[in-house]
Specification:
- This protein is an alpha+beta fold and 184 residues long.
- It has two domains: 66 residues, Winged helix-like DNA-binding domain superfamily/Winged helix DNA-binding domain (Arc Repressor Mutant, subunit A); 74 residues, Arc Repressor Mutant, subunit A (Orthogonal Bundle).
- The strands form two sheets. A three-stranded antiparallel beta sheet has the order 1-3-2. A three-stranded antiparallel beta sheet has the order 4-6-5.
- Helix 5 packs across helix 7.
- It is globular.
Length: 184
C-alpha cells in the first residue's frame, strides 16, 4: 500500500486535481481528491474553484454535485464531439419523464409517493426509466412508514442539461394568486 503523497508545490494544486479528475472514471468525492493530493478539504475546494473558473473560457467544465466532482465537456461543443465520436443525438425525454425529473430535481431527495402526489398518476415506470438512464439514483430511504426509496439527480443529469450543479437550476415560477372580481 502506498503512503499518502506530500502536498504539491505552491500553485500546482489545481493541476494535480485536474490530473486526478482526468483519470477518474466516475465523479470523485472532495475528500478522496484531497487525500490523493495530500491536502485538506478546504485547500482542495479552493483549488477546484480556481480550476472551474479557469475552464469557463475553455472546452471543459468542472461539475459538482453533493461534494462529488467530475470533468465534462462544455455543452456548446457537443456537435463537434458528436462529429468526432459518431454519437447520435441524446435520446429525448417524454413530457412525463421531464415532469418527473423536474420534481426530483427541485425536491430532492424525494420518494416515488411524493412524485405521484404531485403528478397525480402512477410514476413507477418513469422513475425506473430515469434510474436506468442514469439521470437519477437512490439517495437513501425515508423515515416514513415503509421506508420508501428516496431519489436525487445525478452527474449525468447535470451533464444532460448542461449545468454544473443543482444551484444553476432556474427558479420555479411563482403561481399568481387568482384575481378576485371587484363587486360593482
Amino acid at each position: 500500500m502506498s503512503e499518502d503523497p506530500s502536498p504539491p508545490p505552491s500553485g500546482e494544486l489545481p493541476w494535480v486535481l485536474e490530473a486526478l479528475l482526468f483519470v477518474a472514471d466516475e465523479p470523485q468525492p472532495l475528500s478522496a481528491l484531497a487525500r490523493a493530493a495530500g491536502v485538506g478539504d478546504a485547500s482542495a475546494r479552493k483549488a477546484l474553484q480556481q480550476l472551474a473558473a479557469d475552464y469557463e473560457a475553455r472546452g471543459l467544465r468542472l461539475m459538482e454535485d453533493s461534494n462529488r466532482y467530475q470533468l465534462v465537456t462544455a455543452p456548446r461543443y457537443a456537435a463537434y464531439i458528436d462529429a468526432l465520436i459518431g454519437a447520435g443525438p441524446a435520446q429525448r425525454l417524454t413530457r412525463a419523464a421531464l415532469e418527473t425529473l423536474t420534481i426530483i430535481a427541485y425536491r430532492q431527495p424525494c420518494s416515488r409517493g411524493e412524485i405521484e402526489a404531485i403528478r397525480g398518476v402512477n410514476s413507477d415506470r418513469l422513475v425506473a426509466t430515469l434510474e436506468q438512464r442514469g439521470l437519477i439514483d437512490a439517495a437513501g430511504f425515508g423515515d416514513t412508514p415503509g421506508k420508501p426509496k428516496l431519489y436525487r439527480t445525478t452527474m449525468k443529469f447535470l451533464e444532460h442539461f448542461g449545468i454544473q450543479n443543482a444551484g444553476e437550476l432556474p427558479p420555479l415560477p411563482i403561481e399568481a394568486e387568482p384575481e378576485v372580481a371587484a363587486e360593482i
